[in-house]
Amino acid sequence: MRTSNGIWKYKELLPVDARYSARMHEGGTPLIKAERLGKKLGFSKLYLKDETRNPSASFKDRSMSVGTAKALEMGMRRVVTASSGNAAASLAAYSAKLGFECEAFVPEDISEAKLAQLCIFGARVRRVAQANSGMDPAVKYMLNKVKRNKQIYPCPSFGPFNPYQVEGPKTISFEIIEQMNWQVPDLIFAPTGSGCLLTGLFKGLSDFMNLGFISSYPRLVATQPKGNQALVQAIVSGTRFEEIQPEKHPKSIASGLLDPYPWDGDSAIKGVRTTHGYGVAIQERKIIEAVRLLASNEGVFAEPSGAIGLAAARQMLEEGLIKRDEFVVVLVTGSGLKAIDAITAI
Ligand SMILES: *Cc1c(COP(=O)(O)O)cnc(C)c1O
Fold first, then answer.
1. What's residue 78's pLDDT?
2. What residues contact residue 209 under an 8 Å CB cut-off, 6+ apart?
3. Does residue 107's CB lie within 6 angstroms of at least one atom of ligand 1?
4. For ligand 1, atom 1, which residue shows the shortest CA distance?
């Protein structure tokens, strides 16, 4: 296997010339069998896809590696993003490597560690006050920027402003299937904010399906905190994407999942429905327990946003929605070292 190439192992399936990529060993993360944790919670086949090991310590490096390569291919060297922290920190790292100019609109209350990453990588940081309107003001600033200057490449980790951003995360699906020796797991649990990660997972599975590499889908599970669950609500109640009301007061310790509006909700919902998946909303207390369970049983230190998938798997098992012997993959999307302030406060 060409695993040392990380996501670029799959360059034939990525929509950019791989020569433009800044190789920082993004992707190629381990799929860890969680023996102790599985036994404790009652799963016989529980696996963790450990995305904390990416260069800037979250899965966003997959998106930003593809995003910056695309910018370079198009001859652009100035990038702008809007992010709660991880996407911006990642874009800043890739920008440093490529000599890009990077501007990041982030929330006022961004975690210290994510802010430190941004500053040390040399991004121009713009801290933006949150409006209680359901519209993320950081996104507005980003869009204004690219409207005024066509030489600036929009590189958020989601959405309708840049169609290439789902391409990086889709390599997570490729890797899981390969690491399981071309077997398809029964379920994949994804922490969900904008829905880009879920969309990417589904896109990766669809690519493999179209190539004839797999013949069934795992059920995809969207997981959000109770304090910001517009997308999960739409999945559970069968609402159409167009009818989704953004959350006016998003609130959770899982600060990476607080997008008030799920920009990629249309394609994320399609992914969940096509795979007969679910949407699950999690209480704060359960998110914190999941951080502790991952750390104390498996030695994996996740930030709250990165641990929420485990809480969802646990909840669905308790509710009898999944069986003990099903093949369960939980994505652990970001490192606990990024959220020391939140974690030491609990
Ligand atoms: C961005 C992020 C997510 C959510 O991804 P979306 O594509 O916005 O749904 C999950 N976990 C972590 C750690 C993140 O940074």
1. 98
2. 215, 217
3. no
4. 256
